[in-house]
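Why AtzE family amidohydrolase? Reviewers of the renewal asked for a concrete example.
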Amino acid sequence: MSAHAMGAALGIAADIRAGRRNAVGVVTAVISDIEARDTRFNSVTRILGPAAVAQAEAVDKAMAAGQDPGPLAGVPFGVKDLFDVRGEVTTAGSIVLRDNLPATEDATVIARLRAAGAVPVATLNMDEFAYGFSTENAHNGTTRNPHDRDRLAGGSSGGSAAAVAAGLLPFTLGSDTNGSIRIPSALCGVWGLKPTYGQVPLRGVYPFVASLDTAGPMADTLEDLMAVYAIMAGRDVSVLPDVASVKVARLGGWFARNVSTGLTAAIDGVMAHLGHDRVIELPEVARARASAFLISAAEGGNLHLPRLRRRSMQYDPATRSRLMAGAMLPAATFVQAQRFRRWFRAQVHEALTQADVLVAPTTVGVAPRIDQPSIMVDGKSVSARANLGIYTQPISLAGLPVLATPLAAPGLPLGIQLIGAPGAEAKLFAVAAELQRAGLAACRPLDAGYARKEKAC
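Here is what the prediction returned.
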């Protein structure tokens, strides 16, 4: 199997395990590439150079001693700056936390990836405290879309998506509360996974909305995404179901409104290839989105209220105003939103008795321009930062796994959501693998620096 067929990260690990490359060479080359090229994208906030090289040296020593360094031996990766990395301050994209003590241990998922041989080399840009869909950060600057640097990368895991799309890293970690993995994955044209709620441990991940938060991987190949997810979740997905046995339907109604003609045509092509023409309409989707807004505002505002009382002016102004508004929501409003959430979740689960996988757009179209950060919804120009989640927020309420799938259409990236029942990630992977095989889904990294063969050290 070629490195491309097995995935970029898996290809690096295979080379290192076979002695064709060494971990120190790979990691130092990737760090040099980030230093040389990320000034164009602003995806990285810190390079973890000495610690990364030290871990890479340990991988090479294990190889020299005849030990198994793990399935991701020497593979460099980056993490959204809300995951604890031992020895580093977790800032969650804010100067408010910069004076905190460094983390004494890794987040659980990072510890699992290290144990598999992977090497964290960078922390990545994000919307402050994960509250936004654009990665416009008042402290660290805006992350630019590698496919068009005049456009947004999406958010809040924009640095994670852009680093993959730019070919700086083969995989990264992000978080998704209302679409923060799915949206930047679509706008940057990479693979991303929002796992089933509660499936991937969040210990050591700075919270936003505890009842909605998830953590997941982003990658330039489906194979790498699956491998990283398996390690993060502790689940084996090496054997996928026969795609012919997976029933697929398209979400209509709310999920068909406002979609660009190019994305609509691409989804038409996906459904035609899969041989499914069923359309399912979920009820009360607008209320579901409103409920997600209210729950996020209330939980986020409550979490930050003590610090807002003391240090509010240190927050990004756009984040501060929304958190303060959320903290002032009446308890009755939050309770009503949670009651509606339970009802809506039951409606989505009913839809999933009619189809195993639901297909929906991720965003209305391509990435908005940075100098015109808006999208058109129902004929009106609205803020991209607040409204890019028009199709992702309602789905978040149900706690379902969603695979952000980059479409292979020409031009700027477009993406779809493949939505499944809780625990049904394997069915999503099976459908995605068929779309990839048919040439309908693919990531297009610009310049995969990690694939270059560096000289042996």
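Confidence is low (pLDDT under 50) at residues 1-5. This is the kind of structural detail the renewal will allow us to pursue systematically.
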